[in-house]
Amino acid sequence: MNSLSLMRFVAKNGCNPLIARQLSLHSVRCMAAKPMASPLSVQNRPKSGESTTTALIARSLQQSPQQLSTRWSSSAAQSHSHAKLWSIERYVSMALLGVIPAALVVPNPALDYLLALSLVAHIHWGLEAIVVDYIRPSIFGAFIPKVMVAYVYMLSIAALAGLFYFNYTDVGLGVAIRMAAKM
């Protein structure tokens, strides 16, 4: 099943595309608890001679990502927006491009703590995304994914505490990296 037929399925059945995308391509079925309203409401009906898929694509391209996520998400998911978190993750990733060299060139406790915090946050978000993507409740049940996400949080807290402790009691992260590079 290609992406065009998946879009047709989503448009026809009105199920959440995030759920449909996570299902295997061989057994695509809508698992939404409540059926959603059809994406082709009265104002979004295709014009004469325009296919349903073309109408969906044209209207989707005219909307911002926030409007699309609000339109396609369920009422429970609307209360929490991931757009801000996604933006923060990107800003931290870009800030690391400046923080890492600055902490290595200018030995400073504030930069050491900033480096530790930004590295742990960056790695935490990456590991959490891996756990959420690959340890799904549909495969492992409801308990194991929650345990693994909790394990990622514990690992991140331990790493941050260890790096802060190292910065406080020893030479600092930037100086330690420079000393290791001299070996």
UniProtKB/TrEMBL annotation:
Heme b binds at residue 122. Pfam families: CybS (PF05328). Keywords: Electron transport, Heme, Iron, Membrane, Metal-binding, Mitochondrion, Mitochondrion inner membrane, Transit peptide, Transmembrane, Transmembrane helix, Transport, Tricarboxylic acid cycle. It comes from the Eukaryota. It is a multi-pass membrane protein. GO terms for molecular function: heme binding; metal ion binding; ubiquinone binding. The chain crosses the membrane at residues 147-166. Belongs to the CybS family. This is Succinate dehydrogenase [ubiquinone] cytochrome b small subunit. It comes from Medioppia subpectinata.
